[in-house]
């Protein structure tokens, strides 16, 4: 299957993408992984992306599209893939359609993980990270530390990352509404959109998505 996963920041796309890709035996292709791989390997596209990022500029669509195209042409993606973070806007969605059509392929479904905006803010703004080890992650509501501000594992100080502040999260949501949300209507018009309520346990959300795909 060839699937695109969309949803606002904090909807759990990365977590769901990993589970769905495993259940469907297809590679999980995320924009973040594409950028990291191309930059670390020193590919031409990676060099171009790094130059824009170092200058504080957005990476142009053509660079992102080029990376995605290269990845989708790898042998492990011959029977399908799950795209996470790409396409990010309508221009990229149109480019993806052109790429697939050129290969005689098409998308099977676009899964939209639906979460209320206030829940997104609560999920992200409530995260607390250990200063000693960033893999130690807590949440003031869903997974609180036994002692407020202190890591259960190593006793390190827990803090809120700058990009997890409520103001930053709401700004990220505004960017999502402006740039990415329009692809929902784009795919709805093609009859590909499947909306998945993303509240609840991870396994329950995965089951909803798998059940929807079977239909």
UniProtKB/TrEMBL annotation:
<keyword id="KW-0545">Nucleotide biosynthesis</keyword>
<protein>
    <recommendedName>
        <fullName>Adenylate kinase</fullName>
        <ecNumber>2.7.4.3</ecNumber>
    </recommendedName>
</protein>
<feature type="binding site">
    <location>
        <position position="172"/>
    </location>
    <ligand>
        <name>AMP</name>
    </ligand>
</feature>
<feature type="binding site">
    <location>
        <position position="31"/>
    </location>
    <ligand>
        <name>AMP</name>
    </ligand>
</feature>
<feature type="binding site">
    <location>
        <position position="200"/>
    </location>
    <ligand>
        <name>ATP</name>
    </ligand>
</feature>
<comment type="subunit">
    <text>Monomer.</text>
</comment>
<keyword id="KW-0963">Cytoplasm</keyword>
<feature type="binding site">
    <location>
        <begin position="137"/>
        <end position="138"/>
    </location>
    <ligand>
        <name>ATP</name>
    </ligand>
</feature>
<dbReference type="InterPro" id="IPR033690">
    <property type="entry name" value="Adenylat_kinase_CS"/>
</dbReference>
<feature type="binding site">
    <location>
        <begin position="57"/>
        <end position="59"/>
    </location>
    <ligand>
        <name>AMP</name>
    </ligand>
</feature>
<dbReference type="Pfam" id="PF05191">
    <property type="entry name" value="ADK_lid"/>
</dbReference>
<feature type="binding site">
    <location>
        <position position="36"/>
    </location>
    <ligand>
        <name>AMP</name>
    </ligand>
</feature>
<feature type="binding site">
    <location>
        <begin position="85"/>
        <end position="88"/>
    </location>
    <ligand>
        <name>AMP</name>
    </ligand>
</feature>
<dbReference type="InterPro" id="IPR027417">
    <property type="entry name" value="P-loop_NTPase"/>
</dbReference>
<keyword id="KW-0067">ATP-binding</keyword>
<keyword id="KW-0418">Kinase</keyword>
<comment type="function">
    <text>Catalyzes the reversible transfer of the terminal phosphate group between ATP and AMP. Plays an important role in cellular energy homeostasis and in adenine nucleotide metabolism.</text>
</comment>
<dbReference type="InterPro" id="IPR000850">
    <property type="entry name" value="Adenylat/UMP-CMP_kin"/>
</dbReference>
<comment type="similarity">
    <text>Belongs to the adenylate kinase family.</text>
</comment>
<keyword id="KW-0808">Transferase</keyword>
<feature type="binding site">
    <location>
        <position position="161"/>
    </location>
    <ligand>
        <name>AMP</name>
    </ligand>
</feature>
<dbReference type="GO" id="GO:0004017">
    <property type="term" value="F:AMP kinase activity"/>
</dbReference>
<keyword id="KW-0547">Nucleotide-binding</keyword>
<comment type="pathway">
    <text>Purine metabolism; AMP biosynthesis via salvage pathway; AMP from ADP: step 1/1.</text>
</comment>
<dbReference type="InterPro" id="IPR007862">
    <property type="entry name" value="Adenylate_kinase_lid-dom"/>
</dbReference>
<feature type="binding site">
    <location>
        <position position="92"/>
    </location>
    <ligand>
        <name>AMP</name>
    </ligand>
</feature>
<feature type="binding site">
    <location>
        <begin position="10"/>
        <end position="15"/>
    </location>
    <ligand>
        <name>ATP</name>
    </ligand>
</feature>
<dbReference type="InterPro" id="IPR006259">
    <property type="entry name" value="Adenyl_kin_sub"/>
</dbReference>
<dbReference type="Pfam" id="PF00406">
    <property type="entry name" value="ADK"/>
</dbReference>
<feature type="binding site">
    <location>
        <position position="127"/>
    </location>
    <ligand>
        <name>ATP</name>
    </ligand>
</feature>
<feature type="region of interest" description="NMP">
    <location>
        <begin position="30"/>
        <end position="59"/>
    </location>
</feature>
<feature type="domain" description="Adenylate kinase active site lid">
    <location>
        <begin position="127"/>
        <end position="163"/>
    </location>
</feature>
